Amino acid sequence: MLKLIYRSFNLICGILLFAQFCAGQEGRETNIDNYVRSEMLAQHIPGLSLAVMENGKIDLAKGYGLANVELQVPVTPETVFESGSVGKQFTAIAVRMLVEDGKVGLDDQLTKFFTNAPDSWTNVTIRGLLSHTGGFSDYPKDFDLFRDYTEDELLKRLEAIPLAFPPGEKWSYSNLGYMTLGILIHKLSGEFYGDVLQKRIFRPLGMKTARIVGEEDIVPNRAAGYRLVDGELKNQQWFSRTMNMTADGGCILLSVLDMARWDAALYTTNLLKKSSLDEMWTRVKLNGGKTVDYGFGWEVWEYQGHRVIQHGGHWQGFSAIICRYPDDKLTVVAFANLAHSDQGIIAHHIAALYNPQLAPR
Predict the structure, then answer these.
(1) Which residues pair with 322 in a beta bridge?
(2) What does the pLDDT look like over 220-247, one tens digit per residue?
(3) Which of 92, 205, 234, 349 could be joined to 296 by an S-S link, Cβ 3.0–4.6 Å?
């Protein structure tokens, strides 16, 4: 009889604890919904897809607003957005895979692979391009984003742009550096860099809707991109086919469900050795010994004692971010279909709803 009473007591306690847990979960989700909708209203964001992962597993995946304003199609977790520079982390992983394959070294100079490169590239290393310390500038004002280039033409255009500073002397964000890495991946692997991503990352991880942008392709659940012009919503501007296929990141189509699989893989050694991953998430050191808050394709910093590994991106009508808090086993991904909207503020606020220690000051 006592055993029966004890078991009944345990069952009741379990039910009460589960009810409290569910109430807490529902309360947090309501707070997230209210916050996201208010921030979308403030920023005039048409549609947003959100995923929160704990311990590499999805805790929340939701869509808000419209994926296509003209057709009134709602956003869902399956909606596909353009990655912007979030895609740089895939380029960086692909390069690091080639390092593990023995095809290239991080401290190899570019002139080892590009024999017609200018003398100024002599001290530019693979490490320098991955960490934005190689001296490359960003797009100059006369760079035509609406023109189609062959890969050889694009390389000649890159080689003609002077370095902004001596390699290793400072940090300066450079899309051109990552564009060059994409050409290098092709040269070393014999395959277009997007095909390398499919073969070695997307398909093995089950990232079923991840792919390179193709304007002419029929892509199920693709969101339309938008921009604000004098406060009025307009359709995105499409750049050339070439500029939508370079390795600086903007050319990748993804859903937050794809990013959840990506996040889970980064807790494992399925893609790279642990030492390789750790190096990607280590602050880069400049020539003078100073470190900057960037690794290889990731921003790396600390907030109130918690490590943060993140990267955002903006490209032709879309904004995106992935924020990983590895010590807390927490990740927030937010994709939106409005150019230059701020997904960082949204992701960090939501992280704080999961862990109050991450609350912005």
Answers:
(1) 311, 333
(2) 999 999 999 999 999 998 887 777 778 8
(3) 92
**353: exposed, middle or buried (Cβ count in 10 Å: 0-12, 13-18, 19+):** middle
**For residue 163, with 0-12 CB atoms within 10 Å meaning exposed, 13-18 middle and 19 or more buried, which class applies?**
middle
Where the chain has pLDDT below 50, the residues are 1-23
Rounded to whole angstroms, the Cα distance separating 76 from 25 reads 20
- What are 301's strand-pairing partners? 308
- Report pTM: 0.90
Query: Are 171 and 131 a contacting pair, CB within 8 Å?
Result: yes
Q: Which of 302, 344, 337 is nearest to 322 (CA)?
A: 344
| Amino acid of residue 102 | G
Is 85 designated active site? yes
Task: Give me the torsion for CA of 197, 240, 141, 229, rounded to 10°.
Answer: -110
Other C-beta atoms closer than 10 Å to the C-beta of 29 total 15
| Residues 60, 51 contacting (CB under 8 angstroms) | yes
Q: 182-199, pLDDT tens digit by residue? A: 999 999 999 999 999 999
Q: What is the dihedral of CA 119, 124, 129, 130, to 10 degrees?
A: 160
What single-letter amino acid sits at 157? R
- Contact 203/197 with Cβ under 8 angstroms? no
From the candidates 49, 83, 85, 255, which is the catalytic residue? 85
Q: Which residue in the block uniquely carries the two structure tokens 């709803």?
A: 353
For 183-317, strand residue ranges (E) read 211-212, 226-229, 232-235, 252-254, 284-285, 291-292, 299-303, 306-315
